Amino acid sequence: MKQALLVIDFIEGIAKKGSCAHFLDENPSIISNVNQLISCFREKHDPIFHIRLAFDSNYQGLPRNAPNGPFFKENKKFLIDHSDTKFISEIDVQEGDAILNKKYGDPFYKSGLLELLNDRFIEEVLFTGISTDNAIIFGANSAITHDFSTLVVTDAVGAPTQEAHEHALAIMKGRVVNQFFSTDGFLKSFSL
Length: 192
Fold this sequence. Notes:
Helix content: 25-40%
CATH architecture: 3-Layer(aba) Sandwich
Number of helices: 8
Shape: globular
Largest sheet: 6 strands, parallel
Number of domains: 1
Mean pLDDT: 97
Strand content: 15-25%
Number of strands: 6
Oligomer: single chain
Low-confidence stretches: none
Strand order of the largest sheet: 3-2-1-4-5-6
């Protein structure tokens, strides 16, 4: 089964200065786990997609009725080429990795991800990133509705709080995720 790795929202405005900063500080292994997965996919020449929340100066693509839309616009949040949309230095982003700009929580929403996955005949997507209770849960739901098999690496995703993280994982179980793995568990199954 052809797989792709999704690495979602490891950007300054979320991972360092935003809603998930505290969780990542308390769980530094998340970043090292994601980098292990990136290395594995790179070694096998399987596609890696770094996906981030990012807008042009007109906020093109932001849903008209997004509750946080006015805050984003008033505070010039998540503009392309501003510091809050830069990938954090700890995540292994390299030339040749696909970089996509999503327009809201769901990584499939107006990012071009679906078309790229279909063009590469991907059947299974592996979710890593932040936040479990936003981009991961909404992305897994979209992936299932677009007929992809969905995998979530539970120790390579995070949320604003442990409670939010665990709650989101519980909601996804049996609904929108085909399999949950630890990083070690996935790497063992991937090498078979």
